[in-house]
Amino acid sequence: MRSIVIATVCAAGLLIGAACSTTPEDQAAAKVEDKSGGKPGASAQAVQPPKVAAVDVSKPQAGSLAALKDPNSPLSKRSIFYDLDQFDVKDEYRSLVEAHAKYLRENPSARMMIQGNTDERGSREYNVGLGQRRSDGVKKMLILLGARENQIESVSLGEEKPQADGHDESAWSKNRRSDILYSGEY
Amino acid sequence: MLKLVKFFTGLVLALLVAQARAQLEIIVTDPGAQRSPIAIVPFPGENLAGPALTAIVRADLERSGLFRGVEVPPLSPAPTENTPVNYGEWRSRLADALVLGSVTANADGRFEVRFRVYDIVKQAPLGAIAYVFTKDNARAAAHRVADFVYEKITGEKGVFSTQIAYVVRRGNAYELQIADADGERAQYLLRSNEPIISPVWSPEGRRIAYVSFESKKPVVYVHYLEDRKRQVVASFKGSNSAPAWSPDGKTIAVVLSVDGGSQIFLLNADGSGARRRISNSASIDTEPRYSNDGKWIYFTSDRGGSPQVYRMPSTGGEPQRVTFEGSYNVSPRPSPDGRVIAYVTRNAGKFQVALLDLSNRQVQVITDSDRDESPSFAPNGRMILLATVIGGRGVLSAVSADGRIKQRLPFAGGDVREPAWGPFIE
To answer: What does the alpha-carbon distance between residue B197 and residue B199 come to, in Å, rounded to a whole number?
Structure first.
């Protein structure tokens, strides 16, 4: 089942010409700094090299952006918290994820980064893996709800960016989380 | 008048030495541990180049846990490497070994240290050598002297001239630093407002790979120490972390989430070519480390339900489980001789460093702290550097591979973590 979903997503991605590549192209153009800002429509004279044109950092419309920050909008809720050693999105966060999936569906140019986090206990690198498992879970749920694979990057900050600095469960429970950011915020 | 000046200089030097020595806290946890008494007579002329060379040499040797400096009263005339040795006299001072030498200023402005090492018990000279150095490199010269003495007496290479890398955090400021193995002469390689983790030295010691979060996600860089240039080697979609060097320095194993999950891939260290995936699981496979012979990659995986140490052929292949005791065994580090794996184990909520002897499967926990991470072998395998937390502050500590000697490295301010011991310097 999972592979079918991924295949479908890849096909959709191919239509808009980006996702699911396994060639070095998906190396995020890290060695070449894009200073063009990737402005949409700048390709009218076809002077942009394809690599630059392919970097889509165009922002959603101003009205939508405001919704992302409006405290009355469910879209302003950006954090999903987890129980110890848990990675599944709890039911209480389902409406939050649904709201963001809807936003991504309605704003195909919107881009999202999900940062998974863990509490401070244990190996830093293993915690990077655990945080990735959390952010991957949110990403998978968003895709099942209609978001496109190429809109979402799930990453992990491991234990490195705690929200609370304490060394007890009250702090740890705030640090086991996934944070949702939209382009322009990361 | 001359005498007075000399006395005054001596006093100042003594204070400086005391200060330097107070920074290093050495705890010998096993009182039965044999520490060989060694007399290191202050080298005439050693204060010409700045720091008292023999004080650094003595501190180095004592830090190894194998030596104890014998107090030597002021001798007149002060002996040098050319002074004939009266073995009986040194035996009566309870020294098993003796170092005599001198420092002279050369015409070109450089300095020269000449010294000899003697075995007092066997009544035999062990060797002699001379090093030329500039004033800026006086500490490095002292470490070279300590390495020579250590090797002549123990038969194995010393690590006093090696360097360590580690990360210092002060609030939201992070620095990747390198320093001498005694924690002195620290300098930073990278300063960032985002975390830096997992530094690892390339086998030849001229490059350090690490993970930086400066672009709001983990990305693997290789930093060239000589020209301070750095190169992105892994910035794929998703997370890029846990770099490890192959013994030939040409390949870097990394953990990528680009294909989903956290899996181990190989990359060319110069950034060329495509990635090659070598782990294949639905679990977290991370913290790869090559064995010294390059045949195996040890790694952490939770494929069995809890994180444990596994190994697989370094070109990929069927993994074998390595650790079995306990429910949390992570961060494997093969020893330089390939016989032992150091790793972090959780015991009743405490994270401690354990050693697994690969020949007999014996496990020994060698620390008694409770938040140990990131063990790193000295290149001669004698000591293990690690990060721990004392009084709420991250500090580096070192423990001998037999667990008998523990020491804390001094650092002023900030949390210190993620130590990596560099290779031998040729």
So the answer is: 6
Strand, helix or coil for residue B356: strand
The C-alpha atoms of residue B374 and residue B388 are separated, in whole angstroms, by 9
Q: Tell me the C-alpha distance between B113 and A130, whole Å.
A: 54
End-to-end CA distance of chain A: 33
What distance lies between CA B294 and its chain's CA centroid?
21
Cβ contact B265:A27 at 8 Å? no
Q: Considering only the beta carbons, identify the residue of A160, A181, A186 that sits closest to B197.
A: A160
Residues of A in contact with B231 (CB under 8 A): 31
Enter the pTM of the model. 0.85
- Do the chains contact at A129 and B330, CB–CB below 8 Å? no
| Spatial CA neighbour of B248 closest among B234, B269, B228 | B269
Query: From CA A67, how far away is CA A71, in angstroms rounded?
Result: 8
Residue B404 to residues B317, B365, B420: CA-CA distances in angstroms?
38, 11, 21
A124, B284: Cβ pair inside 8 Å?
no
Beta strand A177-182 pairing with B251-256:
unpaired
Domains within chain A, CATH numbers bracketed: 89-182 (3.30.1330.60)
Q: Are A120 and A175 in contact (CB under 8 A)?
A: yes
CA separation for the pair B52, B46 (Å, rounded): 6
Digit-coded pLDDT (tens) for A118-167: 999 999 999 999 999 999 999 999 999 999 999 999 999 999 999 999 99
CB contact under 8 A, B241 and A125: yes
ipTM for this prediction: 0.91
